[in-house]
Amino acid sequence: MSGEYCLYKDKWLAYDTWSLYEACYLIQEEDPHYVIAMYHPGHEIHEEAMRINLLAESCADISLAIRTKKGIGNTVIVLPIEFTKWAHLKGIKIPDRLYSLTASKTTPPPNNTAFSKHRIIRKDVIKNRVKLLVKEVINMFDDPMNIPYGGKKSLEDYLLKTYPAQFTKPTFKTAWKLGKKSGGYEVQDVEKYKSRN
Fold it and tell me: pLDDT of 93-122, one tens digit each?
């Protein structure tokens, strides 16, 4: 997971319990709150979390101990160490940060590459999204370095309508910032807007 795009915090390792919902994202080394804000419901991270959740529910109180936290909604909770060990036994790839919960000090860590499959996929998705945004900027505006007032909003509306699987409001915002870093486009009178901040 790239720190540039995610807010995964060590705080999660300090919690005594996770909800089953949180655990299904944390085992992918994803911050649940960040993922909900940044990725549309059909995104592969959500699909994988759903797959893990279904597997966990089928194993409840057999190979995975689950508990119910009394209160609103009676949240299903798991202990991080138990959930991580269960996931490891089920062949789910364990992030390095969580592997320490499953292994003794004498057990060598798994032979993980620098990026998990999901990290590579996500970086490719973001890269392709930025390329698509830049392409549409060039198509829509005569002078990409001088996008008129309202042009950014028109572009956003167009991309959300035309490419709903690629763009949501948060993903557009991220792609816009990354595309600007490449120096491919700029809004008109950018200095005037900067002076307002």
Answer: 887 777 666 554 444 444 444 434 444 445
Structure-block tokens of residue 16: 């005594």
Q: At what angle do helices 169-181 and 151-162 cross, to 10 degrees?
A: 120
Separation of alpha carbons 40 and 170, rounded Å: 9
CB 172 within 8 A of CB 159: yes
β-sheet bridge partners, residue 77: 19, 67
Per-residue DSSP letter, 187: B
Overall pTM surpassing 0.85 (yes/no): no
Residues in the chain: 197
Tokens at 54, concatenated: 């279904």
Tokens of 160: 């959300």
Q: What are the backbone angles phi and psi of residue 186, rounded to the nearest 5°?
A: -160, 150
